[in-house]
Q: What sequence folds into this?
């Protein structure tokens, strides 16, 4: 049996979710007649303080729908250079809608560089440039190790955007993790943005699905975009039922994942060859790198060797970028699993050290 720390996407639905899925009342959602989906959408809107919500199959589709709905062909979308939208979503609005992405630097805490952001904003007065229609944030931030943007940071970007007539979309795949880390309601954290996508299928443990929330008019148009992308499902209440359980029963336990991630971080910090900034571990994601006895950072091939050795010792981890390794805690990973993972990682490191 592996201790799987590759991602919180490996979570399995809980018994309560399976029961709810079995008993779900369903209808045709393209007609707006699936009562379970309607209930989930109302719940998501209420929790986030937005007017309406839309159930979508995946987070990537949710982000694409938001971009295509906010920005038209030839209108620019500003994203961070470390964002999930930029790195892992196949070009999104640029590929599908002809909206160029303008990339600005991301700080280690996940915040967009404000000076670069100001400089990136373009309007229609210059016929040579694509006017900016949308700025995308990410909270919590995956490639920055699960870091969290505060209310003040979100508000600063939203104020700049709205002053210039630009919409703001938040990739909030793990927004409930971010809110848990800050100790505030999700609705407060997303108050200043125009739309938010969040996943049901990561830390919240549902098997499938994400939510897109925003104004009623935005969701009306987003529903059409979802249809365009093939995301209009029929009796999908069997999936939405698990999402309702996720929002009603799985949010409060996210703090346990954060505690286990912190436990893992401090355990890794005690191991030779490991470099980790424990003070940056605030949610359920951590990043660490490896180095040899001379302090030289491991390259891609050496990291691949370590990951294989860790697997042999029962621990699944994943690469993140060129030099970092990512670990993600989630439902099903308990404190004892963290201790077992640390023992497996230590054994893998010892084997590698003997090979050098």
A:
């Amino acid at each position: 049996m592996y201790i799987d720390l590759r991602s919180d996407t490996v979570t399995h639905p809980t018994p309560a979710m399976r029961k709810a899925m079995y008993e779900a009342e369903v209808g045709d959602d393209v007609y707006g007649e699936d009562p379970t989906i309607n209930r989930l959408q109302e719940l998501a809107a209420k929790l986030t303080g937005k007017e309406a919500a839309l159930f979508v199959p995946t987070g990537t589709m949710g982000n694409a729908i938001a971009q295509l709905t906010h920005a038209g062909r030839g209108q620019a979308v500003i994203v961070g250079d470390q964002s999930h939208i930029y790195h892992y979503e196949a070009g999104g609005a640029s590929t599908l809608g002809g909206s160029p992405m303008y990339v600005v630097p991301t700080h280690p805490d996940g915040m967009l560089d404000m000076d670069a952001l100001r400089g990136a904003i373009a309007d229609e007065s210059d016929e040579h440039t694509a006017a900016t229609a949308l700025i995308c944030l990410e909270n919590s931030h995956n490639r920055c190790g699960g870091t969290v943007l505060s209310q003040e940071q979100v508000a600063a970007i939203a104020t700049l955007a709205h002053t210039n007539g630009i919409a703001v979309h938040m990739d909030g795949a793990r927004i409930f993790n971010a809110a848990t880390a800050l100790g505030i309601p999700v609705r407060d954290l997303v108050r200043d943005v125009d739309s938010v996508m969040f996943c049901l299928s990561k830390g919240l443990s549902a098997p499938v699905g994400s939510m897109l929330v925003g104004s009623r008019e935005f969701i009306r148009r987003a529903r059409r975009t979802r249809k365009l992308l093939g995301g209009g499902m029929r009796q999908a209440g069997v999936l939405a039922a698990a999402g309702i359980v996720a929002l009603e029963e799985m949010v409060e336990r996210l703090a346990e994942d954060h505690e286990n991630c912190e436990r893992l971080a401090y355990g890794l910090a005690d191991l030779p060859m490991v470099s980790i900034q424990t003070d940056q571990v605030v949610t359920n994601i951590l990043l660490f790198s490896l180095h040899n006895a001379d302090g030289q950072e491991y390259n891609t091939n050496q990291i691949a060797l370590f990951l294989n050795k860790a697997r042999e010792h029962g621990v699944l981890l994943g690469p993140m970028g060129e030099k970092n390794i990512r670990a993600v805690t989630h439902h099903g990973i308990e404190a004892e699993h963290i201790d077992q993972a640390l023992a497996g990682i230590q054994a893998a490191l010892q084997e590698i050290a003997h090979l050098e």
Q: What stands out?
A: Residues 335-355 form the longest helix (21 residues). The chain has 14 helices and 13 strands. Residues 21 and 238 are 5 Å apart (CA to CA).
